[in-house]
Amino acid sequence: MTLPLQDPQLAVEAEGQPSTRSGFFRTVLRERKAAVVGLSIIGFFVLLSIVAPYISPYSITQQTCAVYAPPSGAHWLGCDDGGIDMLSELMQGGRISLVVGFAATLVAMIIGGGVGILSGYFGRWIDIGLMRITDYLLVIPDLVLMIVIADVWGASLFHVIMVIGILEWTSTARIIRAQVMSLRERVYVKRTRALGASNARIIWKHILPQVGPLLIANTVLTIAIAIYLETALAFLGLEDPTVTTWGTILENAFQRTAISSGAWWAIVPAGFVIAAVIVGCFLFGQAVEDALNPRLKAANLSVHRWRLRPLVGRGPDAI
Amino acid sequence: MSLLEVSGLNVWFDLPQRSHHGGGQVHAANGVSFALDAGERFGLVGESGCGKTTTILALMGLLPPNASLAGEVRVNGRNILAGGEDSVRAHRWTDIAMVFQGAMNALNPVKKIGWQIAEPMAFHGIAHGAAARRRAGELLEMVGIPAAAGERYPHEFSGGMRQRASIAMALACDPKILLADEPTTALDVMVQAQILDLLTRLSDELGLALVLVTHDLPVVAQVCERAAVMYAGEIVESGPMEELYHSPRHPYTRLLFAATPDLYGEDDVVSIPGTPPRLDRELAGCPFRPRCDSAFAPCMDERPVLLPVGAGHEAACHLTRQPAGEHQ
Amino acid sequence: MSEAPLLQVDNLVTHYPVRRSLTGRLAREPRLQVHAVDGVSFSLARGEMLALVGESGCGKTSTAQTILRMVNSTAGTIRLNGTDITRLSQPQMRPLRRKLQMIYQDPYESLDPRFRVQDAVAEPMLVHGIGRSRAERRDLVISALERAGLAPAEQFLERYPHELSGGQRQRVTIAAALVLGPDLLLADEPVSMLDVSVRAGVLSLLDGLRRDGDMGILMITHDLSTAAHFADRIAVMYLGRIVEQGPARDVVRNPQHPYTRALLSVVPHRDPRQRSTPQILQGETPNPVDVPPGCRFHPRCPIAEDRCRREDPVLRPPAAAAAAGHEAACLLA
After folding, report:
1. How many CB atoms within 10 Å of residue C126?
2. Which of A95, B7, B54, B129 lies at 20 to 30 Å from C109 by C-alpha?
3. Nearest residue of C to residue A187 by CA position?
4. Which residues of A touch C197 (CB under 8 A)?
5. Cβ neighbours of residue C270 closer than 8 Å, sequence gap 6 or more
6. Nearest-CA neighbor of A7 among C314, B67, C230?
C-alpha cells in the first residue's frame, strides 16, 4: 500500500542506465578505480603467462648461470639454487600457478553456484540436505585436509586442482544461496511461476542472470584463495616437484638455504608476484561486490554536510 | 509574525560526476514559501517526485551531503537555517519534529519503545533517567498507548501502534511544529482514521502546528484547513481546502481532485496523461503545460508566478490573469 | 442454455500452520493455524468485475493466491469455467493457466529488469508454446501492448522497465497477461502503488477489458472508493470470511453489516465540506490465528448482542430492503 519513495534525484539518476550485464561491469570499471587497477594486474599476469615461453630470456631446464648468482645485467633477477634464471622461472612458473588457480576456481564455482542455486530455489529438504553437506565441508580446515589428501593420493597438479575446487565452493554456495532465496521472492519470479513456467526456465532466464555478477565477484575472490592455497601446498612439498610454479620456487628456495645464503632474489620476487595477483583479485572482486550492494552508500554518516547558498532577492525567481 | 515561515526555499541535489550525467543538478524544490500559525493544520499535497518530502526534510536540515539549500525557514522570527547544520540542530526536535514516511519501520528493533522516546530528551537536556522515562510514559498515554507498553520492543507492536509510538517520539521535546510525511500511507483505513484523529486532537489540544505531507487528497481534505499543491518542485496553488476543491484556479489542482474517486461520487474519474518533467534541466514556460488541458499561448514561454486569486488563495497559472471564460 | 459461471468458489478454506519453535514442539504446544481464508463463497460471471475489499489480514490476498493455485486450499472447491481445479496438480494446472492470469501490486517489481518489454510480453507465449515464429509472436506482442494502451507499440518493444513510468510498467504487465487470452484476471491492488493521476487510466483499461474482452476481473483492493467506482459487485471481507456482498452501489449506499458501515464511515472524502462522523472502531483487526467464537466481528462490533458471542452468522439477504443479490452475515441485519 505504500508508494515507492521516489525523490526527484533518483528519478533522474535512474534514467538511461543500462541494465545489461556488460553495462554493469563497464559502470563498475568507470566508477571504481580499484576495479581497474585490480583487473589490470590480473590481465597483466595472464598475458605474461601466455607469452612467457616465447619471451623468457633463458630456458628453465638448463643451467645458465652460477648457483645463487645475484641479479646482474644478464640475469635481471639472478639465479636460483640450480643455476636457472629466476626471471624465466617466474614467467613460466606463473602459467602453472594461474592455470591451477583458474581451474580450481572453475570447479569451485560450478559446484558452489549449482549448490547455491538449487538450495536457494527449491528450499526445504534439498536446502537442508545441501546445507548440511556445506556445513560439514566448511568446518574442515582446508590446509590440513589438503595435506592429508595430497599425501594419500600423491602429489600431482590434478589432485591439487580437485582438492582446492572441492573445498572452496562452500562459501560461494552460501552467498549464492542467500541471493537466490531473496530473488525467489521477487514479484516477477512469482509472476512467472503463476504463468506456469518450469523451474528450469525460471532459473535459467530469471535467476541466473541476476546471480551472475555476484558469482563473478565471488569467483575472482576465490581465484585469489586458490592461488594462495596452491602456493601453500607447493611450499609444504605436496606438489609435484618437477613442475615449476611460484609455490615450488619458494619451496626450493626455502629448502635450499636461500635465506642463509643471502639470496633474497630467490624468494622475494616470487612472493611479490603471488601477493600482486592476490591483491589484484581482491581489488576487482571487492569492487564488484561493493557495487552490487546499494546500501553501502552511507550518505547520512558522511562527514560532509549540505551546503547553504546565499539567497539573492526573494520569491521563486531568486538566485 | 507566524510560528513557521518558509520563504523562497530552494533545494538542489548534485548528480554524481562520474555517472553518464556528467555532473549537473536536480532542482528538487523551487521557491517554496508558506506560513503556519500555532494550532493550524496545513497540507502539502503532490504526487511522487514533486518535492514535498524534500521540502520538509529541508525544514529540518536533514538533507544528504550532495544537497545545497537556499532560502529562509523562520521559527518565531528566527531563521534556523542561517548557520547551516549547526544552527538547525539546536532547533531540531525541540522546535520542529518529524514523523517520517514508514516511521513505523524506522524504529530501532533492539531498543525498548520507552527508551527510544526518552532518547531525544536526554540528548537535548530536557530530562534524564527516571524523569525521562516517566515523561515517555505520559507521551505514550497521550497517543493512546498504555504507558506500561514502553517496556516492550517494536516488533511486539502492530503497525498502527508503532506509528503512534513514532508520533510520541516526535513529541518528546515538546515541539511547536510537527511535520508528518505520509503518516498513514501504509495503514488500513480504520487505523488511518485513528491516527488522523490523533493528529487532529494533538493539534487542537497542544496547539501544534501540523504540516501533513501526502499524495492522498481526501486525507488532507479531512484534516487540514489549508493546503498547498506541489508540482515539479514548485507550489502551483495554495489556499483554504474548500477553495481548492470548489474553486481550483490551477488545472493541476482541478485534475488531481478529478482523478481521485469519491465513495459516493457519480462523476467519471480522470487520469492526467504524460509524466512530470525532469528536474535536472531548466524548463521554459509552465512546467505543467505538456499535460495541461487548458494550455494556451503564454504557457509556452512564460513561467507563471504565484499570484493571489482570492482571500489567502494563490495560484501560479496564466489563466488566472484572463477574465473568466476568455482563454484559448 | 445455462452456462457455468466463469469462477465459482464454494466454502474455500485455507489454513496455514504456524511453525512452532523447537522448545514449543518439545513442550507439545498446540498446533496453531492461521485462518487466512475461513469459508469463502462467491461467483464471478464473464464481463463482471468483483472487488474483494478489506483491511490487511482479512484474507483477500490469500483468497486470490488460493484461486490461482499458488497456495493449496485446505477445504472447499474452486471451479473455473465449470472445471474443478481445487485439487489439480501443478502440471495439470499448467494448460489452464492460460485462462487465469494475475496482475500484481508492485509495478516496479513485476518485471524482470533485464528483460526488454518485448521479451516480457513474449515470455508467456514461449512458456505455453503459442506462436510458431518470432514474427508471429512479435505481432501478438504488439497487439497485446496496444490493447493495454501502450501505443505506438513499436516504440515500447525495445525499452527496459527502468525506462518506463509506473503506469507504463503496469500496462506492460497487463499486456503480458492479455497475450494468452485469459478469461479471468485477478488484480491484486493494481493501482495502489501508482500516482493518483495515473490510476484512473489503468482502472479504465481493466474496466474496458472486461466489457469488450468478455473477461471476468476479481480486483483486490483496500480502497473502497475505487471499488465503488469501478466494480460491479463488492465483497467485504473480515478475518477470512465475506461479511457482506452485493452490487457495488447498494453495498456502499445501503450497508447492512456493522463492519461495512464503520469502514465506509471512516473513508475520507475529497470534498472538505463533507465531513462524515467517523465510526472509529477500537483496536485493530485481531490475529487470524485467534478467531473469536460466534460472530468473528463481535468483539469490535458497536451493536453486538449476547447471541453474537455464540452464533456464527451466515451470508443471507438482510431483513431491510436491499438490492437483489445483496447479502450480509449479521444476526441483526
Report:
1. 15
2. B54
3. C110
4. none
5. B217, B218, B221, B245, B257, B260, B262
6. B67
Sheet holding C33-44, edge to edge: C33-44, C7-17, C75-80, C83-84
Residues of A with CB under 8 A from a CB of B: 1-9, 11-13, 15-17, 30-31, 299-300, 302, 304-311, 314-319
How many Å apart are CA A246 and CA B131, to the nearest integer? 69
Q: What is the pLDDT of residues B30-58, one digit of tens each?
A: 999 999 999 999 999 999 889 999 999 99
Residues ≥6 apart with Cβ < 8 Å to A214: A175, A176, A179, A289, A292
What is the residue-wise DSSP string for C29-80?
A: PPPPEEEEEEEEEEEE-TT-EEEEE--TTSSHHHHHHHHTTSS--SEEEEEE
Q: Cis peptide before C313, with omega less than 30 degrees from 0? A: no
Give the number of other CB atoms < 10 A from CB of residue C75.
14
Q: Are strands B307-310 and B313-315 parallel, antiparallel or unpaired?
A: antiparallel
Instruction: Tell me the whole-structure pTM to 2 decimals.
Output: 0.87
Distance (Å) from the alpha carbon of B7 to chain A's nearest alpha carbon: 7
Of A19, A191, A205, the CB nearest to C113: A19
pLDDT in tens, B185-197: 878 899 999 999 9
Residues of chain C falling short of pLDDT 70: 1-2
pLDDT tens per residue across span C200-253? 999 999 999 999 878 999 999 999 999 999 999 999 999 999 999 999 999 999
Q: Choose, out of C196, C219, C264, the residue to mutate when testing the contact with B (most B CBs < 10 Å).
A: C196
C-alpha cell at B76: 518565531
Tallying the residues shown for chain A, one arrives at 319
Encoded amino acid at C139, one letter:
D
Report the chain B residue with the minimal C-alpha distance to residue A310: B70
pLDDT of residue A31: 76
In angstroms, rounded to a whole number, what is the distance separating the alpha carbons of residues B240 and B228?
Answer: 9
The tens place of each residue's pLDDT in chain B, 328 residues long, gives 889 999 999 999 988 765 555 678 899 999 999 999 999 999 999 998 899 999 999 999 888 888 999 999 999 999 998 888 888 888 899 999 999 877 767 789 999 999 999 999 988 888 898 999 999 999 999 999 999 999 999 988 888 899 999 999 999 999 999 999 999 987 889 999 999 999 999 999 999 999 999 999 999 999 999 999 999 999 999 999 999 999 999 999 999 999 999 998 888 899 898 888 988 888 889 999 999 999 889 999 999 999 999 999 999 999 988 765 544 3
Interface contact A132, partner C, CB < 8 A: no
Q: What is the dihedral of CA A68, A72, A73, A79, to 10 degrees?
A: 20
ipTM computed for the complex = 0.89
Q: What's the CA gap between B248 and C312, in Å, rounded?
A: 50
Cell of B101: 514516511
Spans of chain A below 50 pLDDT: 1-7, 13-21, 313-319
Nearest to C12 by CA among C74, C61, C71: C74
* Selected residues 177-196 of chain A with any CB under 8 Å from a CB in chain C: 186-188, 190-196
- Which chains have 3 or more CB–CB distances shorter than 8 Å to chain A? B, C
Other C-beta atoms closer than 10 Å to the C-beta of B51 total: 28
Query: Tens digit of pLDDT for each residue in B75-121?
Result: 999 999 888 888 888 889 999 999 987 776 778 999 999 999 999 99
Residues of chain C contacting B, Cβ within 8 Å: 55-56, 165, 195-204, 222-226, 228-230, 252-253, 262-264, 266-273, 275, 278, 280-281, 284-285
Grid cell locating A31 = 566508477
Chain C contact probe: residue of B197, B271, B291, B292 with most C CBs at under 10 A: B271
**Residue A21: predicted pLDDT:** 47
